Amino acid sequence: MNDGAITVTDLTKRFGDFTAVDAISFEVARGEIFGFLGANGAGKTTAMRMLCGLSKPTSGRATVAGFDIARQAEQVKRRIGYMSQRFSLYGDLTVRENLRLFGGIYGMKPARIAEKSGRMLSELGLGAERDTLVKSLPLGWKQRLAFSVAIFHEPAVVFLDEPTGGVDPVTRRGFWELIYAAAGRGITVFATTHYMDEAEYCDRVSMMVDGRIEALDTPAALRAAHRAATMDDVFQQLARRAKRVSGC
Amino acid sequence: MIRFLIEKEFKQIRRNAFVPRIILMMPVTMILVFPWAADQEVRDVRLAVVDGDRTSSSRRLVEKVASSGRFTLTDVADTWPAAMESVEAGRADIVLEIARGFEKATVTPDADGSAKISIAANAVNGTKGTLGTSYLTSILNDFAGELLADAGGAGSAAGVPSVVPQYRFNPRLDYKVFMVPALMVMLLTLLCGFLPALNIVGEKEAGTIEQINVTPVRRLDFVLAKLIPYWLIGFVVLGVSMGLAAAVYGLYPAGSLLTILLFAGIYILVVSGVGLVISNYSESMQQAMFVMFFFTMIFLLMSGLFTPVASMPRWAQAIAAVNPLKYFIEVMRLVYLKGSGLGQLLPQLAALCGFAVAFNVWAVFSYRKSE
Q: Within a domain: residue B168?
């Protein structure tokens, strides 16, 4: 067993000649909120997909919740939650049915699922919508629900891939309160984002440029090191070094 | 955990606007409408007659043909070229020419001993031409028998061989009896092969499959949860269509119901396997639909559904030999019409089991939870 929630050593992913992720190394401690930043095409999503077992590394190794992502992918999957960039709950199932499905998949008993979803939905303010088809919920609520589903089985680590894309700052703020609550219960949070206000909410932040991690520290330390007033300035300074065309 | 996945599939099928309808409409249209439309029995063959003899015998023959119910007399021409003209104009399918001296030859056989009759068929519509000719020939044989009986009683008729075909297992050569069991095969192919496969590709498109792929759900469980609901639906639909066949056409399997169910079970595995393989290689519904359409066309045309496999060219027979549809259609027809038991169907059983294993192994190996 490893102490850190996530340990990454020289993790690399190549697609043909293209090196999407270039020998990155870092560690994330338990209960930490780790921001994984970078421009479009910097390799964030590819790195995250490897950590979730959706993609196999070309070389290097990583452990998540103490298990090797290449050799023990199924053990890893039992201990993580994942919220993809694209909303991917079942739109033609109701809020409660989605919770029942994903709770059941992780081996929770029906009685426990029912009890926990009741409590969780009233905390989220979704109690009245429990029998609404998920596809008819507004985007902000869909995101809150997707996050709740991702942590419903109390995973050790939850991966969030641009969880708040397309919603206003107030809704984003509300979403981050959910993240803080989860981290407070000991769940490690690993999130990618484009929004620099969100970067400020993280315990530590890494900046990815062209498949490499160019900076990794607390937001305050990064601002100090780059003599920047905001995380946005830090990001601009680092992203300017990128040689890759963004958007792939 | 598979229980939760199956539960989810049923909820989704129930809420889908299109799947429950297709499950209801397909057996009804296939079994009630299609056999009538796809009937290859030939009626109303339009006949042009050239009566060169103009005797009572020749008139009797023409009357006999006209009253058989198979033919409509559309033209009585004086000469062969005139009759051919009406074929060319599309007014007649078959020309029957009774040569001059017909009656004389039937009463007093001359040196070469035969009365001359010619038949010419327009074979643009091959089935109509062939079947029309064979109906006409059998009427002529009949007529010859009558003449002999009139002329000399049993004595002189004894020397003439007469061929009386006896059609076993489908005595009235009813085309519907032949088609309905094969249409049940089509139903199972579409319901258990296509629908689950399209459903999986649909999850790929929606991105929901990715949410499943990060969970500990085993790929076998995911796939089984997709298939089991459609297997159940497949058996229900098979039951409904057998019920319809009995109620509407009075068609009951001559063989055992268990044999049908056993083969249906194996066949369902085969087609779901094919569907899964296609879904594993398809990124979008559109792509999956086109690939399925392509294979269905080939499978259907080379299955013996419409034309017998044994009369196909050798290379086509070789392709048909790797067509699962062919084997199950054979089985359904043999069990329904001939009452064949498992013992007589071992080659088909072996072939279908082989396909089931091959396609499902391929399906499992081509399914990837990660890239």
A: no
